[in-house]
Amino acid sequence: MAQLLIVYHSRTGGSRQMATAAADGARAETMTVLRTADVAGPEDLLRADGYLFCAPENLAAMSGPMKDFFDRCYYPLLGRIEGRPYAQMICAGSDGSNAARQIARIAQGWRLRVVQAPMILCTHAQTPEAILAEKTISEADLGQCRALGAALAAGLEMGAF
Fold it and tell me: Domains of the chain, with CATH numbers?
C-alpha cells in the first residue's frame, strides 16, 4: 500500500483544518500520515510515496515553521526522493501565490513531480484582528481539500504518478 505524507503548519487553524480534511479524504484510498511541520523530518519523507504540503501565507510568504521544515529536510534528502509526486495547499489572507511559488521552488530542487496546481484558499483577513483570529474554513472549501486528498491518494494507489 502506498503512503501519502501530509505536512502542515497552522497558527490560526485554517491550514490545520485544510490538512485534516485532505487527510480524511485520503485515508479512504491509502495509508495517510499527517504531521505538523515542527515534527516531520527527513525519515517521514523517505517513507512516503507522495506528499501534500499545506501552509499559511504569512507576510506574502510561507510560514516560518514550514520554511524551517524544508530547511531541516532539504539537504538530507537531496537526490533521494526525486520523481515522487506532490501537491500543495495554501491558506491565504489575500493572495497566497508567493507562498505557493516558494514551496514549488523547493519541490523543484528536490525534483518532485507536481501533480496538481496549488490550491489557494483565501480567508480575506486584512486587519490585524482578522489576521490573528482563529479561522473557520467553509464546508465547501473543506470538501475541496478532501477531494484533493482523495485524488492524490487514489493516484498513488493506482500508480498513476
Answer: 3-158 (3.40.50.360)
Residues 97-146: tens digit of each pLDDT: 999 999 999 999 999 999 999 999 999 999 999 999 999 999 999 999 99
pTM reported for the whole predicted model: 0.97
Residue-by-residue DSSP string for 68-102: HHHHHHHHHHTTTSTT-EEEEEEEESS--HHHHHH
